[in-house]
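Readers outside the structure-tokenisation community will struggle with the description of the input data as it stands. I therefore recommend that a typical entry be quoted early in the introduction. An entry of this sort, consisting of the sequence and the corresponding backbone structure tokens, reads as follows:
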Amino acid sequence: MGKHDLNRRQFIKAVGVASVGAAAMSMPFIRASASDGRFQGKTLRLLTWSDDTGLAALRNIAATFEAKTGAKVIADRTGSTSEMVAKLKAGGDRPQYDIITLAGVGAEGLAAAGLLEKPDLNRISNIVDVPEKYRTGADGHGIGYLLWCNSLVYSTRTLKEAPDSYAALWDKDMAPNIFLPPPNWTEAMDLIIIAAKLAGGDEHNIEPGFKKLAELKDRVVTLGENPNQIAELFRTGSLDMGGLYAPAFFPKQIRDPNYGLGATFGMKEGFYTDLMQSVMPKNRPGDTDLAYAFIDHSLDPVVQGKMAEDIYNGPVNAKAVISAEARKSPYILTPEQIADKAIMHDNAFLATVHDQWIRRYTEIFSS
């Protein structure tokens, strides 16, 4: 969203550099082929996140790319999209990275600064199976590779069944203690729109949304800046429900019954998505063909399915391979669910209103 970083990973401060071979266990589901021998011994420099999403990318994308091609991926990891943007800008014309994976707002910022190459889609064969709205972002400078998907999060101890509408947030008998996203996150912008629609308005008639949000004020325990803290509040029984929030924040805790943490994408109103993107800096240290091969590999249907199952992000490839067992999970999104229920917010429109909306949202929950 232009100069404004609404990235939801700002709470992570750790920065690390690692060879993927050392940082991620080998995942043998992609087999090497003779045609990939041209990349043997070459090196690709990758910048990605230091959180679970970044680690999943090392396991499921980078490590399998190494196994497939014989190339080496050196991963530099950092905590937020804003830090990635700052790192590339600080390097000036010095080649640092071949590929960066980041949130759409960062891709837009780097494209606006003239630091990105616009990829040739004809060199990315798997993109033909990606719906057009998920193929590119940042005016064609970013290639979509995952969907960051937000939903309602709830206590499985408090609720025996998953809620099927965002209206559940306003049901004090169902969920006495709730949390909401912080005002500077895109999730807060989407929640404002949801509140407006529940109250008979929409994003262009937003006043009913702010009035409806004010009804939640007395039940909000916290604005969830720190996902680990949110998980602990669920574990100790201090929270009953919250959102909008991504199950991708809690891949370990959701699998641990001690947390009593559930999430659902089954709201009848649909769920909001944000396109995660791969970008190619104009100045790169490595081989251009290798960079394109890496982007294409990230869109491989098997790789896409593994990422969805591992980290609860939505696959962009409509032919993503989701196992029969994974399809039973309420947290793992299938291409069919995305086609039916996913909502992409209008970044250009939100950029025109988000300063005002942040101020109004902050006023409601800080007074």
User: Anything to note?
Assistant: The CA atoms of residues 251 and 311 lie 6 Å apart. The domain at 16-148+274-332 is CATH 3.40.190.10 (D-Maltodextrin-Binding Protein; domain 2).
